[in-house]
Amino acid sequence: VGGGYITPISRLLTYGLLLEVAADLTFAKATSNGTYYNGSWIDLLFIASAYMIIRAIVLTRALFAKPAPIQ
């Protein structure tokens, strides 16, 4: 089911999760150094990772959605 379209969704989810890990590690390092501030570029990493993960979920749902029966 889904054919070759599963691979791009898996890739999007994987990259989103990897970006989330990178954002978390960068945030931890900046916080321990005392250099983190609200609205820094690190926050963009969290936004980008959330977008990628949500996009993968939406694409998966659209891929497996069943059309309504015609009456």
What's a quick, concise take on this entry?
This protein has helices spanning 6-33, 41-64.
> What is the overall number of helices?
2
Number of strands: 0
Query: Per the principal axes of the C-alpha atoms, what is the gross shape?
Result: elongated
Radius of gyration over C-alpha positions, nearest whole angstrom: 17 Å
What would your notes on this structure say?
- By secondary structure, the chain is mostly helical.
- Helix content is 73%, strand content 0%.
- The protein has two helices and no strands.
- It has helices at 6-33, 41-64.
- Helix 1 packs antiparallel against helix 2.
- The longest helix is centred in the N-terminal third of the chain and has 28 residues, at 6-33.
- The model has no long low-confidence stretch (mean pLDDT 89).
Keywords summarizing the entry:
single chain; 71 residues; mainly alpha; 2 helices; elongated
Write the layout of secondary structure elements.
Layout: H1 6-33, H2 41-64
Helix pairs in contact: 1-2
